[in-house]
Amino acid sequence: MISDPDNYKIVFSIKHLIFNSNDQLTNLVKSKGIENWGDLIDYIKKLPYGRNQNREDFSLVLKENKGTCSSKHSFLKKIADLNNFENVKLILGIYRMNHLNTSKIGSIISENGLDYIPEAHCYLKLNRRRIEITNSNADIGNLIEDIIDEIEIEPEQVLTFKIDYHKRFLQRWIIENEINLDFEKIWGIREQCIKWLEQ
């Protein structure tokens, strides 16, 4: 509650977005006792980081109790679409991944003579504000200065499109920056980093 210039009181409160769809995915959310959009975001953020067995099945985020940046954020975007929640965008960003903004990877990148590797990362924009829920410690503020590319995608595009887009970006980056390692070597280093993140 604040006072305006005329000393009238203005009250601010949170408006919960309640699920209004009876589709299978939303019903799965409700079966977990999650009643609104804000609680769902909190719930998904607390789930551990880990790859799901089938990238095409968004429900596995809840069924397997884990997810990656792709599966968690695409799951949330899908729920938002099914329930007609407005101004929720799924973003595919490319950022300069290094030990400073992604500390769990340790010195893998620098040991290979690189300052960073361009990494594809998914997050949401809610009313144009970036939201990061990959894990309970996630903070998009740690990446903002290192984001070098952003596009809006649909949940289904986290499958082949995201991977293809990332690979094409890396191939251009290697050529434009005259990197002395080939694409397969760079991709292998990147996979090492992802394995460390899963531990």
Please tell me how large the radius of gyration is. 19 Å
Helical proportion? Answer: 25-40%
The run of helices and strands is EEHHHHEHEEEHH
Mean pLDDT: 91
Please tally the β strands and state the result.
6
Query: What is the SS-derived class?
Result: alpha+beta
What gap, in angstroms, lies between the N and C termini?
44 Å
How would you describe the overall organization of this protein?
The longest helix has 17 residues, at 160-176. This protein is an alpha+beta fold and 199 residues long. The chain starts with a strand and ends with a helix. The chain has helices at residues 24-31, 37-46, 60-63, 69-82, 108-111, 160-176, 183-198, and strands at residues 2-3, 9-10, 88-97, 117-126, 129-131, 147-153.
Q: Which key terms come to mind for this protein?
A:
6 strands; alpha+beta; two-stranded antiparallel sheet; 199 residues; 4-stranded antiparallel beta sheet; 7 helices
Helices and strands in order:
Elements lengths: L1 E2 L5 E2 L13 H8 L5 H10 L13 H4 L5 H14 L5 E10 L10 H4 L5 E10 L2 E3 L15 E7 L6 H17 L6 H16 L1
Antiparallel strand pairs: 1-2, 3-4, 3-6, 4-5
Can I get a quick summary?
With 199 residues, the protein is α+β, with helices and mostly antiparallel strands.
